[in-house]
Design goal:
It holds the Pfam family DndB. The chain has 367 residues and is an alpha+beta fold. It has twelve helices and eleven strands. Helices cover 41% and strands 14% of the residues. It has a seven-stranded mixed beta sheet with strand order 4-5-1-2-7-3-6. It has a two-stranded parallel sheet with strand order 8-9. Strands 10-11 form a two-stranded antiparallel ribbon.
């Protein structure tokens, strides 16, 4: 057993303790039956992707730090007992004996509840920890320890810890992650594209994308645009069996959006109240882009504004719109992200069939 020094903290007559210990041991003192997706009485379910991300982050390769403490609670007053002793100067100090050897750890399994921070702790479990995170790698984790808290107390602590915090701006986190090399796969692929769209002169979105926490009236959040480009699979577009380079993607997107602007007489640079220049309209437009580019390749046409405008007209024709109608008049389809995505997918499928039929002039080889 190992003697772990504790600092007692008192708040309105309630004492808890702060200490530090090896998270690879601490996690083994929790309930080992807890697994991804399991419903818990005072916690959210574990998410495998989050565990994997944290495991990689704290690996010796990344050298990620977790300075915030996890919150724990003991289950049995007769085990993991807080003890105290008098120091030479007369001060009272607190400590607890924690298991250290493998047989001791097995004996103390399921003696603590994780009140908050279970993903941080379970990232060090044998099931999820990185293979480079060996036992001899020095890594300590701070913890706050409550003595046999009730289920109600654990629920209250979890709720207060998570609900009372103001969420950090997602775009700001994205910006910081880009500087720290912590972007996920989709973000790594599309962050440079979005950044170029926000800064290059050819882009209709220049100066209109919120890359961090800056204020831009009716601006488009970089995080949301990355999500849209990933959904549209822009990075998987090919010409002559070659993936488009980042520069080619930026040029194609800029040409494509400029064509929509000129077709409808709208502006992404100076947006009004119209649906097309809102994020919902932009989502619809970008989700259709692969269909437009694929048609250009099929017809061996240059992907220029005139071509894009001609396909927009064909999309209107396919949908049977009148002269005064636009593709953005059905406002209900743009109120929810799911509805907009479905409409874009349906329109892409219908447009492909319409273009194929138009190009064949209705020829039926079986007639």
């Amino acid at each position: 057993m190992k003697k772990v020094r504790l600092t007692q903290v008192n708040q309105y007559g309630q004492a808890f303790y702060i200490g530090k210990y090896d998270p690879r041991v601490l996690v083994k003192l929790a309930d080992q039956s807890i697994d991804v997706g399991s419903l818990q009485e005072a916690q959210r379910p574990l998410e495998k992707q989050h565990l994997q991300e944290l495991s990689e982050y704290v690996s010796p390769r990344k050298k990620g730090m977790l300075p915030a403490s996890v919150m724990l609670g003991t289950k049995d007053r007769n085990r993991l007992v807080v003890e105290k002793e008098t120091e030479p100067d007369g001060e009272i100090s607190f400590f607890m004996w924690f298991p250290q050897a493998p047989e001791e750890i097995r004996e103390y399994e399921n003696t603590i509840d994780i009140i908050d921070g279970q993903h941080r702790l379970f990232a060090f479990s044998d099931r999820y920890r990185d293979e480079e995170m060996k036992d001899d790698v020095v890594y300590e984790m701070a913890f706050s320890l409550f003595i046999t808290p009730s289920v109600e107390m654990r629920r209250r602590l979890f709720t207060v810890t998570n609900e009372k915090q103001k969420a950090v701006n997602g775009n700001l986190l994205l910006y910081l992650k880009s500087k720290l090399g912590m972007l996920n796969q989709a973000e790594k692929q599309y962050y440079p594209i979005v950044n170029s769209l926000a800064t290059e002169a050819c882009s209709p979105l220049k100066g209109r994308i919120i890359m961090s926490a800056e204020k831009i009236t009716k601006g488009y959040k970089a995080k949301e645009l990355i999500k849209i480009l990933d959904k549209a699979k822009i990075g998987q577009l090919q010409v002559n069996h070659q993936l488009l380079t980042a520069a080619e993607q930026v040029k194609a997107i800029s040409t494509y959006l400029s064509a929509w602007e000129s077709f409808y007489g709208r502006s992404y640079t100076s947006p009004g109240k119209e649906t097309m220049t809102k994020i919902s309209g932009l989502r619809y437009v970008l989700l259709l882009m692969p269909t437009f580019l694929e048609y250009a390749v099929t017809r061996q046409k240059k992907f220029e504004q005139e071509f894009v405008r001609s396909v927009i007209q064909k999309l209107e024709d396919y949908k049977g719109l009148g002269e005064e109608e636009t593709l953005f008049d059905r406002s209900l389809e743009f109120r929810g992200e799911g509805a907009t995505i479905k409409m874009a997918e349906d329109d892409a499928t219908g447009l492909k069939a319409y273009l194929a039929s138009s190009d064949s002039n209705g020829f039926n080889p079986l007639a």
